[in-house]
Every structure is written in C-alpha cells, then in structure tokens.
Amino acid sequence: MRLSIRYKIILPFAVLLVFVGVTGTGVATAQLTNAAAAEFDAKLLHSSLQANQLLAQLDADRMADLRRATDTVGVAEALASGDAAGLARLLTPIAANVPAAGIQLRVLDVNGKELLRIQGSPNGPSPIDVTDSGVFRAQPAVVSVLAGADAGERRAFLSGQPGQPVLYWAGAVRITSERIIGAVLLGESLTEVAAGIPGATFYDLSGVPLATTLRAAPVASETVRRQLTAENAVRVNQTLGGHLYHTLFSTWTIHGIQVGFLAMAADAGSLLSLVAQQRLILTLIFTAAALLTLLVGTVTASLLTRPVELLVRSMREVSAGDLHHRATVASQDEIGYLARTFNEMTASLEEKTAALEETTFASMEALARAIDARDSTTFGHSARVAAVSLEIADAMRLCAKDREALRRAALLHDIGKIGVEDKVLRKPGPLSDSEADDMRAHPRIGYDMLKGLRFLQPSLPGVLYHHERWDGAGYPTGLTGTAIPLPVRILAVADVFDALTSDRPYREGLSFEAATAAIRIEAGLQFDPDVVTAFLTRRPAIESILRRSGRRGAAVAEPEAA
What we know:
CATH topology of one domain: Hypothetical protein af1432
CATH architecture of one domain: Orthogonal Bundle
Strand order of the largest sheet: 3-2-1-6-5-4
CATH superfamily of one domain: Hypothetical protein af1432
CATH class of one domain: Mainly Alpha
Radius of gyration: 40 Å
Helix content: 40-55%
Oligomer: single chain
Mean pLDDT: 82
Strand content: 5-15%
Low-confidence stretches: 323-331, 554-562
Number of helices: 18
Shape: elongated
Number of strands: 11
Largest sheet: 6 strands, antiparallel
Structural class: alpha+beta
C-alpha cells in the first residue's frame, strides 16, 4: 500500500508518541503508586506508634491507681484483720476515680485467697459477693508479688479467663513492719482497652486473637511471630472480609513484660482507589494530548505537503505529454494557489512561533516563581524586582524593546538557584566559603539553562550579570562601569532594594528609608549613579509597589549590602 507524503511524515511521530506516552504513563503511575503506598505505610506506622504510646500511658495510669489503692491509710490494717467491709469502704472511692467503666479491683490475702471484689459498671463501682475460685493463687505474677520478690516491685499480667481477657496490675500490701499481708489487683477488660484504639487487634503469645476492633482479626501466623522482636515490626497484606488490609505487627509489652502481640490494620481500599484514579487521569491526559498532537500534526503536515503533492502531480502529467494544458492551468490556478498557501503558511508559522515563545517563557517564569517559593522569605521576589525595574526604566526612558527584555530578565534572574541546595538557600546565618561559592554559581547556571532559547537572547545579560558591580568587584566576570548593559544596571538596583526590605531568618527587613540610604551610599561603587538618580525620582511609586505586595517598610535595622 503506497502512503502519501503527509502520512509518511506523520506515521513515525505517531508511533513514537504512542511509545513515549505508554511508557511515560506506566512510569508515572508506578511513581505515584509507590509514593501513595509509602505515605499509606507511614500513616500505618504512625498509628502503631500511637497505639504503643497509649498502652504505655495506660500502664502508667493503672500503676498510679494501684499505688493509691495499696498505700491508702487503713487498707493494710483492714486487710490484716480480714475486714472486708472496711476494705470496701476505703477502696470503692479509689475504684470510682478510675476512668475505665469496667474496672475490677480485687483484694487477696497473703495466701492468695480473694477477700473483696469491686466491680465497675455504668452506674459506678460497687462491691459484689466473693466466691474464691483460687484463680490467682497459681498466677506467677501474683505469687511473685505475695512472695515479696524484688521488694516494692509491682507486676502486670494478662488473665487466662477464656473469652474474657483482662489486664491486671498487682501490687503488694505491707504493714508497718514491711511484712506483706496481701495484694491488690486492678483489672481492666482488654475489650475495653481495644475499643480506645481503632484498627487494633491483640493476640496472646501463641497468636490467638484476644480482642479486636475490626470485623475480622488479621492472622498472626507462626512465620510472622518468629520475625517479631522488640525492635522489629512486620508488615503484611491480608484480605479480611473481602477487603485488602495492610497490617503492621509488633510486640505487646506491659510494664516491661511481653504479654502478646499487637496488630494495627488499615483498609487499603482507599489506596487502591487512589491508584486507579491516578492511572485513569494519566491515561485520559495522554489520550487527549495524543489526539490533539496528531490532529495538529496532520493539519500542519497537510499544509506543508499540499504544494509538494501538487508539484509532483503536475510533473507526472507533464511527463505524460500534457504540457500545454498543465502550463495553462498551472499558470492560472495552481501557481496562484501555491502562492496563497505559502503566504498563509508563513503567517501561521510566525503566529505559532510567537505563541510557542510565550508558552516557553511562561513555563520558565513559573519555574522561577517556584524557585523563589523554596524559601518563604524570597516568595514573590522576582515579580517585585520586575515591577521596580520597570519603574526605573520609565524614568530612564528605555524603549519598549529594552523594557520587555528587562522585564523578562528580572523575572528569570534567579532561575539558576535551581542548582543551589536548599540547605544553602535557607541557611539562617552567614555562608561558609564553599557555600558562598555555590551561591555565586547561580547566575552562570541560569545563563546556561536559557542560552539555547533564541527569543530570550536580549534578556540573558540580566541573568548572567545582575551581580556585577559598577566598580568591577562583582561576579561572575567582574565587568566595570558601562561595560555592564544599562538594563542590567537597572536590574541590580531593583534586586538589592527588594532584598534589603525583605525579612531574612537572621534579620528583619530594612525600612524604606534605611534601604534607600544604603542604595544612595553605593552610587558610584556598587551601582551606576545615573540609575540611582532615576531610582530616587521614582521612589514613591516603588514604595507603593512593595507595600501592595505586603512590605511594611517600617522595620528598624542597620543597612547592609545584599
């Protein structure tokens, strides 16, 4: 199949466009997916850390409650005499001050026999009839407390009651002779503890779920449990109830003793939805861009190849012997069409070139504004410098062409700071020699970035030379006097004036009066005296520009060079 010239031009670009678009969409989607997943996992880790902090605070609070119970005056004497009523009268107010609604407070004698139980309820804690089950006599933590191991130490443990796991804190009760006469146990339902930690699941040491706030508990497999240590958490992805969850397992420690494992889970459905949405948006953007590019390319190729196709067709007809007819028709119709088409193409290309230049400059300007915004103290700096520069240019009667070149140079003069590290740009103090060298490189970096754009050639001296000085002590080349182009000399004054009136991490901005005095002092040294004179004549308008951008112009500070 023979293709026309226009399609031979379009087809390779169409294939390349599809390849680049598909590859770019895939890479961008992968990057966005990784970024979203990293943010999701960071939130999950934060939730796990918060959960462990809540459990540590719970341990501290309950130990404080237990200390109040064991140290309350009269408790030791009532326990020694077996006065359950007296114990209830002394300990019920303490139980009432514990925030947990389902709190349990138990009193054991020295043999581990339960003498008193105070049970929490929505209406407040109250003593209940006690039937000693002997459950706590064999509990190692209780035995240790009653035996007085490590005097003064209190213990925490998890009860083994099936279906009703309870966290207990145990403390010994001593009489004045320091002899242990019993113990107080303060218990809180693990279900109630879990309710205060959304997304949490608690397991015993064998991986059996004890309490959870999820519809289904994640599985703490033996492989996961073997990998868990006090310093190492394990993340797994599991499907629970038809939904994908990211789960972070960690050890569960109460009062220095591991009692089980803790899992924090988050539904990854939102992550999957976000990734799918991003992929759809990128696909739509690529498709729209591809269609628009192909449409514009087809129209452009048609305009470019139509005269060539007419010429080829005419040559074929002439070679076939129809010379007289073709000469007559071509002279009247096709040659005129070719001329009109050429003129239209020329005008269209000029228009498209101007639009492309404006689009390119807008992109460069947006990048320069973004660089200004890297440091909050320089936000909007380039736009203000451009406005001040044009005021001075008006006073010096610059022509329209030079004013436009100056405006663009002012907006782009600091674009080279894209090559300077944030730690140097944002350093709240004097720069070291190497850091100063890095900062002085930004005019050259900006010039190298823009020198390939032909329409910006008139503005490039402002980018490269805006730190040159009238006395030749500037950088990067040490130009002197009128060797520095006039628009650049104007830009230098505007740049320094805005910098002097701007706040910095290490000083407040100067007042307008102090900054103006600093500019006047540098006339003939750092600045062209004629430019300084023009600046002074336009000072009210310049101060008005800075006030509209948020400058107070009233700070008191010593003048300093920018």
